[in-house]
Amino acid sequence: MPDSYPFVNTPLPYAYDALEPYIDEKTMHLHHDKHLQSYIDHLNETLRTQPRLQHMTLEQLICIAPRLPPRLATAVSRNAGGVYNHRFYFAGMAPGVKGARPKGELAAAIETAFVSFEAFEEKLTAAAQSVFGSGYAWLAANRRCGLSIVTTANQETPLTLGLCPILNIDVWEHAYYLKHYNKRDGYLADWWNVVNWEEAERRFAACKSRRNIRMPNA
Ligand code: MN
Questions:
Q1: How far is CA 98 from CA 22, 93, 166, 191, in A?
Q2: Element (H, E) at 167
Q3: How many whole angstroms separate alpha carbon 213 and alpha carbon 208?
Q4: How far apart are the CA of 164 and the centre of ligand 1, in A?
Q5: Are the CB atoms for 175 and 86 separated by under 8 Å?
Q6: How close is the Cα of 211 to the center of ligand 1, in Å?
Q7: Which of 22, 87, 118, 129 is the most buried (most CB within 10 A)?
Q8: What spatial distance separates the first Cα and last Cα of the chain, rounded to whole Å?
Q9: In this predicted structure, what is the pLDDT of residue 218?
Q10: How many A from CA of 32 to the centre of ligand 1?
Q11: Closest CA to 68 of 76, 60, 58
């Protein structure tokens, strides 16, 4: 099935309580069924009157958004970004993976970029901590498949920076407030126990095979 308008809220790839005790069931329900659903509804509503955008994938919508008329650009980029970022975040977590580490080419690329896995862990955590207000921290690959850590505000994505995302951490308060209140550091410590490294490895391989990452104005 092509992934374009009308977008549907695909189920989580695991049960709502599968990430317990790290990410609680109630947070997963609200995050997927309410927050993500609302981005999907707003995106469909935005695209309803825009037939020329209706065949586009989320990535295409995100990349074309800056070239649209301002009001439409904002609605498309916020809502397509909201759907893309949340799907990416949910699929980047998995149950039963505590203590797992990246393997193969991704592990090697992490060592090249950050010297050690531990140093990478510290840097990504610090980046996630540094996001002021709402946004995400990302591990992303550049066109030469070198890795870097970036942060984005609100529902922006690294796609518009010409980067190919590997992992993201949602640091909007709704991602952790029920369990951790305003303590983002507790949530980040939990998140490291549910990182889906197999998915990250697949994404890195896909980035390598694409290489020519679509640029918004290229
Ligand atoms: Mn979120």
A1: 10, 11, 19, 10
A2: strand 164-170
A3: 10
A4: 20
A5: no
A6: 28
A7: 87
A8: 28
A9: 32
A10: 8
A11: 76
Q: Which residue has the tokens 């329900």?
A: 29
Measured from the Cβ of residue 162, the count of other Cβ atoms closer than 10 Å reads 16
3-state secondary structure of 215: coil
Query: Amino acid letter at 84?
Result: Y
CA dihedral 193→194→198→203, nearest 10 degrees, is -120
* pTM flag (> 0.90): yes
Q: Around ion ligand 1, which residues have CB less than 5 A away?
A: 170, 172
Task: Give residue 50 CA to ligand 1 midpoint distance, Å.
Answer: 26
In order along the chain (218 residues), what is the average pLDDT of each group of 10 residues? 89 98 98 98 98 97 96 98 98 98 97 98 98 98 95 97 97 97 97 98 94 45
Structure tokens at 103: 């393997």
Residue 172 CA, ligand 1 centroid: distance in Å: 6
- Ligand 1 centroid – CA 47 distance (Å): 21
Closest-CA residue to 77 (of 150, 153, 138):
153
CB crowding 7-43: b at 16 or more within 10 Å, else e? bebeebebebebbeebbbeebbebbbeebbbebbebb
**Separation of 115 CA from ligand 1 center, angstroms?**
30
The predicted structure's pLDDT at residue 190: 98
* 25 Cα to the center of ligand 1, angstroms: 14
Give residue 217's pLDDT: 38
